[in-house]
Amino acid sequence: MSGSSAHWDWPEGVARHVLPEVDSTNAEAARLAPHLTQPTWILALRQTAGRGRRGRPWQDPPGNFAATLLMRPSGGPQDAALRSFVAALALHEALGAVIGPAGTLALKWPNDVLLNGGKVAGILLESLGGGAQGVSHLAIGIGVNLASAPDAAGLDPVTAPPVSVAGETGLAIAPEELLTFLAAAFARWEAQLATFGFGPIRTAWLARAARIGQTLTARTMTETIEGRFETIDETGALVLATAQGRRTVPAADVYF
Questions:
Q1: N or C: which end of the chain has fewer CB within 10 A?
Q2: Which DSSP helix (H) or strand (E) runs through 62?
């Protein structure tokens, strides 16, 4: 990683909104979408109705990070979905920059970031608009437990337990500080995707992936699949070696 501070400057041509409070940054992104003229980061210092995957509530105590990047993605819905890997890499890089050697980061398919083996961050992609032209806008919601982690009591015991940056490293990181690092990192990874396609993103993501070569459980809406985590394919789908042969899983919740 470059040592120059310019490496972490706010990216050109990207807007930033910092709100004291909002229902959810993804909901705010949907309201802003019709007026969008450039990629826009929306940071809320407090969310009153944050959401996670599959509509689950996302707990968001004060001091934690809740932001959404609203953008117009090139390509169709399949290309839009690849932004979860861009976002995961950007978040891994940004957290690595602010944490330094104080903790170990890894990526959990499809879109979580782990710190010392616990879930420190989640990413939620929502397509806005669409129709025949594909996805008109994409909202990439990112939540990071900077100050505190939610209570694990209500969570499935076999998922990665929630952790916070402060709890694992003792570091106090302000949400606005992380946003600058994240916006710069996202712009760099997005440029890679635009220039070279998904190949280098896939390679970089796999290099940071948790539990490659190990057995895990993938739960889709209809079935539970157990197998050895081999790779992700060129669409970002999970590839598992199961007792019945290789399985490609486009969408699932993953348990270690």
A1: N
A2: none
CA distance 214 to 227: 8
**Spatial separation of the C-alpha atoms in residues 183 and 11, rounded to whole Å:** 7
Query: Which one, of 228, 208, 232, 203, lies nearest residue 217 by Cα?
Result: 228
Q: Which fold has domain 215-255?
A: SH3 type barrels. (2.30.30)
Read off the pLDDT of residues 208-235 as tens digits, 9 standing for 90 and up.
999 999 999 999 999 999 999 999 999 9
Nearest Cα to 198, choosing from 123, 206, 27?
206
Structure token digits, residue 140: 């990439």
Domain ranges of the chain: 5-207, 215-255
Q: For residue 178, what are the CA distances in angstroms to 44, 86, 154, 232?
A: 13, 16, 28, 28
Ramachandran assignment for 7, one of left (phi > 0), alpha (psi -120 to 50 degrees), beta (any other): alpha
Whether 206 contacts 232, CB under 8 Å: yes
Alpha helices for the chain (secondary structure H)? 25-32, 77-81, 83-99, 165-169, 175-196, 198-207
Pinpoint the alpha helices (H) of 41-82: 77-81
C-alpha separations of 250 from 49, 92, 110, 166, 221 in Å: 28, 22, 9, 34, 12
At 20-64, the pLDDT tens digits run 999 999 999 999 999 999 999 999 999 888 766 656 666 677 899
